[in-house]
Amino acid sequence: MINIFKYGEVDTAAIVAPNVPTVNVADTVAAILQNVRENGDAALKDYTARFDGAVLDTLAVSAEEIDEAIAAVSPRFLEILEKAAANIRRFHERQVRNSFILNEQNGVVIGQKIIPVDRAGLYVPGGTAAYPSTVLMDAIPAKIAGCREVVMVTPPGKDGKVNPVILAAAKIAGIDRIFKVGGAQAVAALAFGTESVPKVDKIVGPGNAYVAEAKRQVYGLVSIDMIAGPSEILIVADGKTDPRAAAADLLSQAEHDKMASAVLVTDSAELAAAVQAELEKQIPALSRADIARASIDDNGKIIITPDIETAIDIANAIAPEHLELCVDNPFDYLDRVRHAGSVFMGRHCPEALGDYFAGPNHTLPTSGTARFSSPLSVDDFIKKTQYTYYTRDALAAVAEDVAYFAEQEGLTAHAKSARIRFEEKA
User: Fold this and answer.
1) Which residues contact 71 (CB under 8 A, 6 or more apart)?
2) Secondary structure of 173-185 in the HEC alphabet?
3) Which member of 278, 321, 324, 351 is catalytic?
4) Looking at residue 343, what is its pLDDT?
5) What's the confidence (pLDDT) of residue 105?
6) Cys staple from 19: which of 93, 245, 328, 367, with CB 3.0 to 4.6 Å?
7) What does the CA dihedral 36, 38, 40, 46 come to, rounded to 10 degrees?
8) pLDDT tens track for 346-381
9) How confident is the model at residue 106, as a pLDDT?
10) What confidence score (pLDDT) does residue 129 get?
11) pLDDT at 13 over 80
12) Residue from 205, 208, 244 nearest 226 by CA
């Protein structure tokens, strides 16, 4: 049963633990990365047989497999995927940055170019659940950014096939190539390249502890989006909130992972007790009841505060992945929110709406990193290049300033490079 605390009885800093791998995970991942780097496709096929139970001749998903998958998906779900994709595109198209050029002085031009990364790699989990939503959320911003190629990796089932809904979502999102490989080995393939899987410039997407650690270890060789930890939800709710809805929203994240964190912060002791009771009613009916039960019992908390303002202060201290504001006039409180991955406003905006359909991205910072990190966006798939142009006269006007500045840092070659163009040749 979830525990109820009064304000001040619980250390908010300990509610969401930092996502730090165990030594065993780190060592296991390091060995997998080295094997893939040295043995390429052979290592990928061996791991796929060992971990996924699938013996593969080829790693790439064929066009025929994609067509078969789409035919196997219900027309209604295809229609919903298309609607969700349209919402995601509309939101992310507003994130597109423009290059700029400044020509404010005679003979001086400075500017910045926005350039998409050439090749983006998307990791889409398999295992206990299929996540077509992740396909849409990760691929669509990459396509909007203008990446030349978007590559997806995802583990196959024991029959050697990828879940049809994953392939249908990939088709709708415009993914260019798909490979049947998961786990840390898939991250290694994207980072190093193999005979089949191309090396990418950026790896994005969630995964288990091994995937997260693999991303950590290859960062620097390639870019990554973030090191994702277990799912989190924090609900700030007043006494008018429906306890059934609050409990259901907490469980929407608890069912993801036994390590997931579900927290309710409220100024109503009556609501706290009602939600506690409602959780006990709803958990047994869930398809993933064992996972939700472990999450709620081990990591769930209800905190009673003097007022909603204090509840939001607690939310800022925790910096949750998902924050729900189940209060009257939620926009009155939005400016108080400083640290959250994504905020869901009002009593009719469940976090699940954001997971699938509304349009803002669901790949979000976890483990308190919302203090300094942002949701996945078009910005994750672009880089910026600066440029500078000076005429001879423009350089002459500032050369001595540049040289003097360099000399203050003790860098005489820098100073010389600014002056030499105006010195007489010997």
Assistant:
1) none
2) HCCCEEEECCHHH
3) 321
4) 98
5) 79
6) 367
7) -60
8) 999 999 999 999 999 999 999 999 999 999 999 999
9) 87
10) 66
11) no
12) 205
pLDDT at residue 254, as a whole number: 95
Predicted confidence at residue 11, as pLDDT, reads 79
C-alpha radius of gyration, the chain, whole number: 25
Residues 317, 38 contacting (CB under 8 angstroms): no
3-state secondary structure the chain: CCEEEECCCCCHHHCCCCCCCCHHHHHHHHHHHHHHHHHCHHHHHHHHHHHHCCCCCCCECCHHHHHHHHHHCCHHHHHHHHHHHHHHHHHHHCCCCCCEEEEEECCEEEEEEEEECCEEEEECCCCCCCCHHHHHHHHHHHHHHCCCEEEEEECCCCCCCCCHHHHHHHHHHCCCEEEECCHHHHHHHHHHCCCCCCCCCEEECCCCHHHHHHHHHHECCEEECCCCCCCEEEEEECCCCCHHHHHHHHHHHHCCCCCCEEEEEECCHHHHHHHHHHHHHHHHHCCCHHHHHHHHHHHCEEEECCCHHHHHHHHHHHCCCEEEEECCCHHHCHHHCCCCCEEEECCCCCHHHHHHCCCCCCCCCCCCHHHCCCCCCHHHHEEEEEEEEECHHHHHHHHHHHHHHHHHCCCHHHHHHHHHHHCCCC
What pLDDT score was predicted for residue 15? 74
| Sign of the CA dihedral with 282 first, then 18, 213, and 123 last | positive
pTM for the model stands at 0.92
- pLDDT, tens digit, for every residue of 17-32? 555 666 699 999 999 9
Burial class of 240 by CB neighbour count within 10 A (0 to 12, 13 to 18, 19+): exposed
Active site residue 339: no
- Reported residue count of the chain is 426
pLDDT cut 70: percent of the chain above it: 97
Could you identify the residue written with the tokens 């992945």? 321
Q: Could you say which of 322, 324, 339, 362 is catalytic?
A: 322
Q: How far is CA 224 from the centre of its chain?
A: 9
Percent of the chain residues topping a pLDDT of 90: 89
Q: Assess whether 321 carries a catalytic annotation.
A: yes
